Amino acid sequence: MKEISIASAIEKSKVASEAAYLLFVEIFVPDKATGEIIETIRIVNNTDDLTFNGARYSALQFDLDVKQEAGGLPAITLSIRDPKGVIRAYMEQYQGGVDFTVAIHAAFSSALDAPPDTSEFFMVTSASAPSYGAVFVLGAENPLSQPFPRRRMRRDYCAWRYKGAECKYQGGMPTCDYTLKGPNGCAAHGNTINFGGAPGINNSGIRYN
Can you tell which superkingdom this protein's organism belongs to (predicted)? Predict the structure, then answer.
C-alpha cells in the first residue's frame, strides 16, 4: 500500500485527470446489543455504481472535509446526500450513527481491481441528519499513537482482498461482503478457513497486529 494520507487523497480526488481518482466509503452498522456488524453500506462519489475489489458500491454524492484545530487532532466531516433516506433510516434505528465504523478507500478508476492507494478506518464521534442528508464527524487517527505494524485485525470484517492471494477463493461467486457469517460472506463461500478477521477477539471489534 502506498503511503498517502486520507487528507492527501481527498485533495487528489478533486483534481481532474484522464483517470479519475475516486473515494470509496464503507459504513459498518453494528448491532446495538452485540456489537456485531449487521449491515455494510458501500458508496462511491461517482455518477454510476462501481465494483471495487469485488464489492458493489452505490453511486451517491458526498463531501469529505478535513479540519485541523489548533493543538488538536484532525477530524473529517463526511456529508452524504441521502435523498431516499437509506442511511438516515439506519441512523434512526442504531444510536443515531454514533460509534459506526467508517472505512475510506482511495483508488484510480482505471485500477478498481488493484489494492487501493490508501485505506483508513474511523469511528463516528457525532452525527446529524439534515433534510435529504446525513453528516458524520469521524475521529481521525493520531499518528503518534498508531501501532506498528499498521494492520488491523477486526472480529467481523475480513482484511483480505477478495479472490486475492490470502483469500484464496476461486469459485464462481462474483462478490463477497467481507463478513464471516453474513449472507455473502466467507461461510456462504465455503471459505471460512481463509477468513481474514479474528473472531476470537472481544466486542471492541479491533485489535492491532
Answer: Bacteria
